[in-house]
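Narrative of accomplishments. A recurring question from our advisory board has been how the design workflow behaves on a single, concrete structure rather than in aggregate. To address it, we present the structure tokens for one chain from the evaluation set, followed by the sequence designed for it. No filtering or post-editing was applied between the two.
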């Protein structure tokens, strides 16, 4: 690993993104090259900018059709979608929820909002998502299913009500086995598909394989609504319940204000949904473009000694939200981050592992060996759509 290599990588990235001298290549910028302005104007002209409006319904039904979900419900952001997914999975105060240590903070914050505690189980080397082997091993050693059909932690006595798998950087985790293990252990599986909109696992969309999936449309994601999120369901009844709870649990009536439970103001405004409709029209092109960039990176890094480019797992089609490379060790990682950020290329290490944060330093883990190794060596490199030519 020499500065020569770093220089070559920098030039390759500048070339791929057609960057002018002195221009910084961002990690991931949004692309607005379709009907965004037109639909936003429509919102303003019709005065439907807020809680009701045609774009909300349209975005939900078009996303359901695109992903094959039985129902889709928009939310104010991805974190709210995850919180709602946990509530709908009957996660209660005092429960434990299994997830991976390598994820964005939102996954664990959402678990904390319910009053449950996270248990951190390691990731797979090949997917960077929750490992079914590690999950099964941990459950066999630490859990059993009680007479009421609840999975319990044998040490703490707490109910293990749910597990959240996150499809890291858009690469689908091994869902078949995760679904099977969670069914056998009476644990509700949730897909944090915030990063993987449009990614396929054996031909099916991530977010639609577990009973509930959560998406994010934050500004740095593959498609954006400014801020926003979505719940995907394989069961329509659950989708209707989600719509009710995310809209203050108001009983439909022309003028009366009756609410039948504690609800949430988690709905997405119509102007954000308008952006979503315009972005969804371009999503297949965005993914094709991002996959071209990923393929170019893959071929380029074949000729760089000591750096491994992270590719989509077998049997999947990743949206390659964020491209990632693995350096030999933490020292090389830090030199690379320093060099690229000094030379106009935005690169980032992966998130601090969740159990390294103050809030979860005493949380249970299974040793998380793979996560620790990956966290030392991984760097995300520029991954946005290369040109607004749609
Ligand atoms: C982006 C993201 C979320 C949701 O983020 P919001 O900003 O609330 O939309 C959740 N989980 C992961 C893994 C993410 O990357």
């Amino acid at each position: 690993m020499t500065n020569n290599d770093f220089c070559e990588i920098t030039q390759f990235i500048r070339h791929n993104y057609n960057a002018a001298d002195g221009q910084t290549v961002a990690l991931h910028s949004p692309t607005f090259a379709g009907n965004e302005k037109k639909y936003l104007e429509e919102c303003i002209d019709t005065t439907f900018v807020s809680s009701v409006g045609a774009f909300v319904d349209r975005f939900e039904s078009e996303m359901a059709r695109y992903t094959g979900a039985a129902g889709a419900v928009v939310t104010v952001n991805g974190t709210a979608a995850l919180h709602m997914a946990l509530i709908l999975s009957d996660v209660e105060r005092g429960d434990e929820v299994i997830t991976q240590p390598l994820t964005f903070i939102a996954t664990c914050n959402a678990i904390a909002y319910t009053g449950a505690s996270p248990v951190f189980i390691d990731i797979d080397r090949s997917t960077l998502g929750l490992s079914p082997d590690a999950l099964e091993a941990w459950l066999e050693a630490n859990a059993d299913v009680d007479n009421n059909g609840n999975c319990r932690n044998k040490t703490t006595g707490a109910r293990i009500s749910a597990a959240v798998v996150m499809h890291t950087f858009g690469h689908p985790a091994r869902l078949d086995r995760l679904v099977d293990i969670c069914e056998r252990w009476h644990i509700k599986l949730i897909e944090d598909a915030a990063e993987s909109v449009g990614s396929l696992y054996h031909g099916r969309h991530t977010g639609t394989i577990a009973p509930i999936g959560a998406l994010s449309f934050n500004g740095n994601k593959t498609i954006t609504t400014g801020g926003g999120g979505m719940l995907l369901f394989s069961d329509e009844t659950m989708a209707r319940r989600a719509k009710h709870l995310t809209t203050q649990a108001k009983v439909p009536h022309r003028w009366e204000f009756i609410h039948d439970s504690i609800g949430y103001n988690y709905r997405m405004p119509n102007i954000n949904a308008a952006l979503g409709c315009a972005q969804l029209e371009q999503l297949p092109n965005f993914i094709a473009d991002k996959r071209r960039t990923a393929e170019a990176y893959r071929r380029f890094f074949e000729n760089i000694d000591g750096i491994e480019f992270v590719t989509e797992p077998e049997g999947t089609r990743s949206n390659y939200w964020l491209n990632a490379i693995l350096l030999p060790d933490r020292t090389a990682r830090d030199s690379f981050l320093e060099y690229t950020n000094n030379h106009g290329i935005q690169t980032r290490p992966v998130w601090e592992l969740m159990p390294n944060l103050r809030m979860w330093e005493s949380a249970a883990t299974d040793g998380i060996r793979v996560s620790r190794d990956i966290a030392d060596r991984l760097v995300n490199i520029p991954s946005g759509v290369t040109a607004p030519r749609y």
